[in-house]
Amino acid sequence: MTLTALPIFLRLAGRPVMLVGSGEAAEAKRRLLERAGAVIVGEEAAAIIAIVAHTDPEPIVTRLRSRGMLVNTVDRADLCDFTLPAIIERDPVLVAVGTGGVSAGLAAAIRQKLEAELPADLGETARALHAARPELRARFPDIADRRRAIGAALAEGLGGDVVARIGTPPAATLLRIALASTDPDELTLRQARALAQAERVYHFPGVPIAILNRARADAPRIACAAPPELPGPGLSIWLEMQ
Questions:
Q1: How far is it, in rounded angstroms, from Cα 16 to Cα 46?
Q2: Which fold would CATH assign to domain 85-118?
Q3: Is domain 10-83 given the CATH code 3.40.50.720 in the classification?
Q4: What confidence tens digit (pLDDT) does each residue in 165-193 have?
Q5: Over the stretch 201-225, which tens digit does the pLDDT of each residue have?
Q6: Rounded to an integer, what distance in angstroms lies between the CA atom of residue 186 and that of residue 190?
């Protein structure tokens, strides 16, 4: 399965962003851009990205794309080079939820659910981890050990004094998972969490790609006929079908 879009975070403070159109939708985008510190300009100005909120957007989008600009068109996913996600903010943490422009309502509903799940002090957790970076680098000179130690502490909870919970990196572990279904939605909560945390995923060649995609994006997927004898440091997973 390929990504339909690459999520990125743009720093727009002090940078020009074109806004073309008027009305309630345009004003909503204006407020969002102002929160990001963007300098909002009209069509005659120079900018790299543009947002179009217009009843007849096609000719405008054609003109802007001819200038090499990336365009977001309100309520027209077919005329979007990028989309604007629903946002959960726990300064400095930002969580973005997008549906590729297919359903803004669904993105908003997911945002509301995540708002209730994420702790209010998540931003404080981020700042504490940032402040502890010199200490953590001294304790764990190896970046992989440091990442595993922090990951283990965060697995116990995202709030509270995470830094105090950071101990030694978890030992090398191979978790074996026998899948009862090829449907990723039928993974148990324990299995889904393990996939999200694993350093690497070993799997029998018949395991569906849809299930492998539930693992961390940076975790290598290694097809093999049998579980490895030396899986490597941290948590590794062996996947096979029942």
A1: 7
A2: Double Stranded RNA Binding Domain (3.30.160)
A3: yes
A4: 999 888 889 999 999 999 999 999 899 98
A5: 999 999 999 999 999 888 999 999 9
A6: 11
